[in-house]
Design goal:
The structure is a homodimer.
Chain A lengths: L4 E8 L3 H12 L1 H8 L1 E9 L4 H5 L7 E2 L2 H5 L6 E4 L6 H11 L3 E4 L2 H18 L3 E2 L10 H8 L5 E7 L2 H13 L3 H10 L8 H4 L2 H15 L18 H9 L2 E12 L2 E12 L11 E8 L3 E8 L3 H17 L1 H8 L19 E10 L5 H11 L4 E6 L8 E7 L2 E2 H12 L9 E5 L8
Parallel strand pairs in A: 1-2, 1-4, 2-3, 4-5, 5-6, 9-16
Antiparallel strand pairs in A: 7-8, 7-10, 8-9, 10-11, 12-14, 12-15, 12-16, 13-14
Helix pairs in contact in A: 1-13, 5-6, 6-11, 8-9, 15-16
Amino acid sequence: MGISREFGIAVVGCGTVGAATAALLCQQVEAYTKKTGIRMTVRALVDVRFDGARAAGLDENLFQEDLSAVLSNPDIHLIVETVGGLTIARTIIEKALYAKKHVVTANKALLAHHGTELFALARSQGVSIGFEASCAGGIPIVRALVDGLLANDIEAIYGIVNGTSNFILTAMVDEGKTYGEALAMAQAEGLAEADPTLDVNGMDAAHKVTILGSLAFGEQIPLERVPVEGIDSLDLFDVSTGHELGYVLKLVALARSTKTGLELAVQPAFLPQNHPLARVSGPFNAVSVYGKAVGHTMYYGRGAGGSPTASAVVSDVLSIALGTWPALFSTLKLWPDCTEEARLAPTGESRHRHYLRFNLHDEQGAVAAITAALAEKGISLNSFVQKESTNGGPVPVVIITHEATEHDLSQAFEAICALPAVEGEAICLRIIDEHVESI
Amino acid sequence: MGISREFGIAVVGCGTVGAATAALLCQQVEAYTKKTGIRMTVRALVDVRFDGARAAGLDENLFQEDLSAVLSNPDIHLIVETVGGLTIARTIIEKALYAKKHVVTANKALLAHHGTELFALARSQGVSIGFEASCAGGIPIVRALVDGLLANDIEAIYGIVNGTSNFILTAMVDEGKTYGEALAMAQAEGLAEADPTLDVNGMDAAHKVTILGSLAFGEQIPLERVPVEGIDSLDLFDVSTGHELGYVLKLVALARSTKTGLELAVQPAFLPQNHPLARVSGPFNAVSVYGKAVGHTMYYGRGAGGSPTASAVVSDVLSIALGTWPALFSTLKLWPDCTEEARLAPTGESRHRHYLRFNLHDEQGAVAAITAALAEKGISLNSFVQKESTNGGPVPVVIITHEATEHDLSQAFEAICALPAVEGEAICLRIIDEHVESI
């Protein structure tokens, strides 16, 4: 088996993902040469601190602080950016593209905010950007959308794409932990950042649905137009009560085609227990894709962590060395710099079931007033649970509605909240039933 | 958006998959041109009967009986073979390759038997064979193995890859149908062929594990070395009793790396109810792939049917037109004609739990004799169920063992079958617990 050529790589950013990527490339160099005929050579690790790289046992001769030396090295063909964030990472990627290096990145925030400009810059420089690792960790979901399912008009994608949130919700559902306890568990397991804001407020999932949705529908999705709700204000009472009624709470990112445009959302939602995504637990991710020809397909795996993310980063490196990714990148018209802005469905039109919870004083006619407010908007009840009062104070009343538009539901919800018997915080959560295949 | 060029396609074989493929290519021609810049033009439908093609509303001007005219047409770049079987289909593919046409096929039987020769022929002619549709219908699992997970040493694959068997087993588990009733249901639904032999005897799944295993492990897997057991002799009693004990019976195809070589199997096996593959129901397929870097990933979707299969066929057509598939096909060293024969693990070494069922005369000491025979081989019991005798005849006794090698278990099993208290047919089924990730 002959080696056709060498392909030089620099990894910029030696944190968890960067160190795991460099380690995987170095450990597997012979295996990759055997598989591809191309020798993948890590020529530099660029950072200002190398604790992680040292701990991963990486060759100290590769450590470099000088990015410009790397960028001017003609034997380096590709830069892996694993710095993260929106500032330095962007500069690094731009410099790499100007130096006509291919780029591989796991940086979903950067691509969701500035992907269009970065893709256009790469194109103008005749190089490509690989970003499989930016969405759902090790799961090859980007490839599924731009290659494996290319024959399909995509009708909908539904994803559990934030492992931290999913771990927290799984601990709340399965172990009865409060949100705060579950978050502390996630941090103790190394799954949540010291500052977990972007994970738990839904923004990380919004980054991913922006990227995946743009590819799936061949339309630009502006990040700021994705309605985002996180899991950080959830009450264990609702998680548990929903569970008793047969529903599992998940942070769901969705993009689906409707008659009036694309519906986008990131929100905590109840899934019926037999929903295909309901059993995706702990740190795992899954993305359901509904194609017009293929029907329902689903992709499942670890959404984060050094080694699974490195798997996706290195698969991109290999595809770029092989020329297959650059061919897709330069030819297909699915990338955000090649497409128009998506037409979005008007808000409030989405029609689905809802979980409602009110705190009710047990007065004569109170329940009748609630059902009347729903009936007023043509909303009928699927189930109704009223817990016993233990102290004479207000008691929680939980309602599962039949399908209604968000618009109608929110009007009824406001009317109910204004009833004299209803007190304090009221909750409305979406129920996502299994998407119906069109085939 | 300019059209860079035309890509001409002939579909040979106008059955369910062929007609669906041609229909999808024709319906989506503008969408594909927009996505790829290449105009995919169906130039001929070759068959001797065109009822299916007519029913699908395909243009009669495309109908052709003369394959040689198609093969000599320089404007046809690719032949889709959807004839099936081992004889005519092979000739068609060979002729197409000799005419230097790319080939796309869903023919798993042909590739499992003769893939090595056909791949080598394609390579010598400078063209490629696309076969995403041959394994697990519309699920892009071939691409996952040769592209998305390329960074990984694959450790194991476990698949539910025969939709007919899975439909039958789902009907037995969920609805208490006998094997015969469930098969009749599958035939009524159009899921089982008039002759369902290859589906229910496990051979179809063996074809698929031969193809997928060869790619996953980069080693040739000779079809005749896959131990195959079907679902056609299963008794509803065992399916139901296993279900009561918390297990779901599935036809599982597996290939996994062990210290002594590759373990291969196609067999009905019990999965614990929380196993990742246990909820794959009805006509759906799923394949779990365990990679050394990525850990567990799973791919789920419809394993058969005209439209899902056409999705995979057409994705191959697009990848060939784009040049990405030919690049992988000509460069990677994973294809069976580029690899050595796999070293297989010796039979009997596989270690797992078992479900055993005996018909026992309720004699003094009979149970003690069974447990003694198991203890003799160091096999301990996980659970033991003895049903009541209703007529004084033998009663079924069901045992779930702890882990034991197949070798030890089969010796104990034979010893038990030879006991005077044991009468008639005895059953031994594998239990497949969730594979442990190495990350």
